[in-house]
Amino acid sequence: MDPRYRIPPLAALNAFAAFARTGGIRRAAAELRVDHAAISRHVRDLEQFLGTPLRDRSTGALTLAGQTYYTQILPHLDGLAQATANIRQQTPSLTVTCVHGFAYHWLLPRLAAFRRAHPRMDFMLRPIDANTAFHATGIAAETHADICYVRDTNAALTLRGLCSVDIARPPVFPVISPEGLAALGGQPETLADLLHAPLLHEEDDSEWQLWFQAQHVPARTIPCAGRLWQAHLTLAAARAGEGIALSNPFLLGDDLLTGRLIRIQPKQTPVQTTPLGSYVLRTTDRGWENHGLSLFRNWLLEQIAAERLAG
To answer: Which runs of E-coded beta strand occur in the chain?
Structure first.
């Protein structure tokens, strides 16, 4: 065989593509359901095969050569997946249930691009209550998956017995409308001053409790300006000037750019933007092998990785 047309083992290419897509060895291992040492070995073997580094060992990021190679091989890997589906005479099918805020404010505006990339796929998005148990929704078939927000404090319990991959760990911070900020008399002096401000709650005060703990602010009681059950509802109330809501970039859309909402920035103490949880894509063992989910999972992780690099 002409050495110019030798290609690396598919397992190495698949491992490298998963690493490039997810941005980490362990995330790639979780996606492919293999040990992280296998991903490292495949990437290392591929680098030896190509004769150039694909990953910066000091930062964990792709090198320029790695990014270029990933961009070039991705259409071919997608083509292999699509050709396999075609020869099996299968139309990829997937129903994704998703927490309301992520569905409406981040996922829905981007779905047209996914549909254009996969026009033959039967895809349905169904926003659903974030507090509904996975199996209680009837989502057990192999053509179903779920996107939920999982707080760090209950991740193990929530994801037990399911296949999952972290989509993103967004920073959480308080926001308020310009009218609400004017009613407060401007930005607070310290973070502790928020304990005397109108705070909008979801189901309860647990998110605020976690946030104040992350800010190292003691908070025995959390003032409540209203309980609104879900994050996208607290944001709607914040836009209406009813108080301060906790949010993250996946829920805000263009609120900050347009000035509909403003970040709370105390004058004396900075806000620590530590994540409190993750958005997670999850399904059953059978569902994880679904071709439609594989296409959607790859696209979803690529979108978030691209926006993280651009932002």
So the answer is: 93-99, 122-128, 144-151, 163-168, 173-176, 200-201, 226-227, 245-247, 262-263, 277-283
Residues 98 and 81 occupy one common structural domain:
no
Quick one: 118 and 54 in the same domain? no
| Residues sharing a CB contact under 8 Å with residue 37, sequence separation 6 or more, in sequence order | none
State the Cα–Cα distance between residues 70 and 67, nearest whole angstrom: 5
Q: How far is it, in rounded angstroms, from Cα 133 to Cα 137?
A: 7
Model confidence over 129-165: pLDDT tens digits? 654 444 434 444 567 888 988 888 766 555 666 788 9
Name which of 32-36, 47-51, 206-210, 260-264 the model is least confident about: 32-36
DSSP state of 129: -
Domain residues for the domain of 16 are 3-86
Query: Does residue 198 share a domain with residue 63?
Result: no
Strands 122-128 and 163-168: unpaired
19: left (phi over 0), alpha (psi -120 to 50) or beta: alpha
Distance (Å, whole) CA 129 – CA 148: 9
Determine the average pLDDT of the residues in 105-124: 89
Residue 55 belongs to domain with CATH number? 1.10.10.10
Q: Are residues 8 and 147 in the same domain?
A: no
165 inside domain: no
pLDDT value at residue 134: 44
Output phi, psi for 140, to 5 deg. Answer: -130, -10
Asked if residue 268 is part of any domain, the answer here is no
> Domain for residue 149, yes or no?
yes
Cα distance between the two ends of the chain: 45
Residues in a beta bridge with 40: none
Q: What is the pLDDT of residues 98-110, one digit of tens each?
A: 988 899 889 999 9
Q: Does a structural domain hold residue 287?
A: yes
